[in-house]
Design brief:
Layout: E1 15-20, E2 23-34, E3 37-45, E4 59-63, E5 67-71
Antiparallel strand pairs: 1-2, 1-5, 2-3, 3-4
Amino acid sequence: MHTHHTKNAPEIGKTYTCVLNDVPVYEATIENAQGCWASVTVVKPLPGKFEKHYTSGQKFDIKVQFYDFIEA
């Protein structure tokens, strides 16, 4: 189990625009966050080259350090 806390980590229960490599990818709600990882539920994919990779309601884990989180 990882217990490291990432600076500017997302908060459980909040919805964020998740930005990967300066590209807004999807809006998602943070279901769980522990250390370097977070479980998210996609609210909606955002227009762009990754739009077809995600669907509303999709759930998965992400590595927090790879994303910027902008509160929606």
